[in-house]
Amino acid sequence: MNLKQELQRMNNRLDKLRRKRAGAKERGDEAIAAQASEEIETLTKKLTKVKNQQQRQLAQKGTDVKSLPFKRALTKAEQADMGKLKKSVKGLVVVHPMTALGREMGITEVTGFAPKAF
User: Fold this and answer.
1) Which residues form a coiled coil (predicted)?
2) Which residues of the chain are under the pLDDT cut of 70?
3) What's the CATH number for 68-118?
4) What confidence score (pLDDT) does residue 71 get?
């Protein structure tokens, strides 16, 4: 399972458990509320581990892209015809500043990274 999907699944489960705990407390059922609280704690720990793993993967991808020898900002015309650009430049990686990778790398404009000058 993909990390993003697993993260979403865990968040959904956590939300259900929180509602279950709130309902149990409202009814005065302390046993179920305590059980839900324990499950929430374990799920929160797992969620933290998955988020850290996702962050490490993103950082690794960022270093891989930064290690490419050539980079430059893409013009509006190149951005408009991205298919043509990617066909003409082998190994081109385009990073947008609003994506998770772009924020991780700290770029401010759409940038192309490639093994050779383009």
Assistant:
1) 7-60
2) 1
3) 3.30.1370.150
4) 93
**Which pLDDT score is estimated for 1?**
64
Q: Which two tokens stand for residue 37?
A: 């609280």
Q: How many CA atoms lie within 13 A of 46 on its CB side?
A: 15
In a 10 Å sphere around its CB, with 0-12 CB exposed, 13-18 middle and 19+ buried, how is residue 47 labelled?
middle
DSSP conformational letter for 29: -
Please give the structure tokens belonging to residue 114. Answer: 């490639």
Amino acid at 100: A
Residue 105: both structure tokens together:
């790398």
What's the predicted TM-score (pTM) here?
Answer: 0.72
Q: How far apart are CA 112 and CA 66, in angstroms?
A: 10
How, if at all, do strands 111-114 and 70-73 pair?
Answer: antiparallel
Q: Quick one: pLDDT at residue 118?
A: 86
Amino acid at 32: I
| Residue 50: count of CB within 10 angstroms of its CB | 17
Q: Can you list the positions of beta strands (E) in 38-92?
A: 70-73
